[in-house]
């Protein structure tokens, strides 16, 4: 069971339980419905839904994509322009596909429990003599050589 939906100018093939990234949905808190369903496939039959079809999803979070560098260059014109762009995305999990009175739901995910916090280790104060013994002696670094100067150009006299 899957459906093809349109979101943010792009088409996505989704099934119940899928997690997808769509372009940022403004004011998307909690649940979202995609009404623009282009096709539905059920038991090998693929086609346009006859009645109203909807795809429900829950919002998992808002993220920003990787930076894309846009570089404009015109040779021999001394023109270079570098611009960066990061696209905003909304991550959603498809929970239900409903059409023609049928409903296909995703299995419920188990609730995640927060990880227990680790106790901070207690630092003991060591005696100054013990610290001096435990530290290795500092290595003497070799003196740096002076940077070599480029060789002077030889000039030749014309005869």
Q: What's this model, at a glance?
A:
With 159 residues, the chain is mainly β. Helix content is 4%, strand content 45%.
Describe this protein's structure.
The chain has one helix at residues 128-134; strands at 2-7, 10-14, 19-23, 31-34, 37-42, 45-47, 53-64, 68-74, 79-85, 88-99, 102-105. The longest helix has 7 residues, at 128-134. The protein has a domain at 2-73 and 81-105. Strands 3, 4, 7, 10 and 11 form a 5-stranded antiparallel β-sheet that branches. A 4-stranded antiparallel β-sheet has the order 2-1-5-6, with no helix packed on it. Strands 8-9 form a two-stranded antiparallel sheet. The protein is mainly beta and 159 residues long. The N and C termini lie far apart (91 Å).
The oligomeric state of the chains shown is single chain
Radius of gyration: 32 Å
**What share of the residues lie within helices?**
under 10%
Number of helices: 1
Strand runs, count: 11
Q: What is the CA-CA span between the terminal residues? A: 91 Å
Residues in β-strands, percent = 35-45%
Observed structural traits:
four-stranded antiparallel sheet, 159 residues, five-stranded antiparallel sheet, mainly beta, 11 strands
